[in-house]
């Protein structure tokens, strides 16, 4: 049985306020879009989906609403509808980076790597400074066996990081980890300084280590080559 999520009082106040505003202004798409994720947080999936749908219908030119509705559909397994909605969002705003990143993730989850690569590459083209875009492309390239280009984009993610928030720092740590592992796998340990990359991963992840080139790091690097990647 799933545990009931803790919901802060401020969340209840915000949700109650928005529910009243929606009753007053039922044709306001922005209000529906704002209320929908609050419904998701209390695990009222049906209500959330209803508000996401209303937001897209009432704000037909809002690519953000299409992105949010598409993600909500994907979370409940309605994959075809999710893709259709996200593609509709791209027709509104072709350079919407979140839509490209999310479509890449959706296609990759379904094993459709050609489409996933197209959208992941477009996300990097639109925002070459975005470490998440490089990380996503690197993952998909790695899944298709292109470790050389995957390593290149993981390195680019490292160069554009670390992120400012804790969640992004976790991803930055994983990018360092992937660079270290892929460097070893490609036999580039001298040129790529795999140990230094792995120590950077451990530092960002808050893990204790002694010196940048200790035997502990080398042992960990060797171990990770046969260990499934943690996400």
TrEMBL record:
The TPR repeat boundaries are 63-96, 97-130
- State a single Pfam family of this protein: TPR_12
What domain of life does the UniProt record list for this protein's source?
A: Eukaryota
Q: Which UniProt keywords apply?
A: Repeat, TPR repeat
The name of this protein is Tetratricopeptide repeat protein
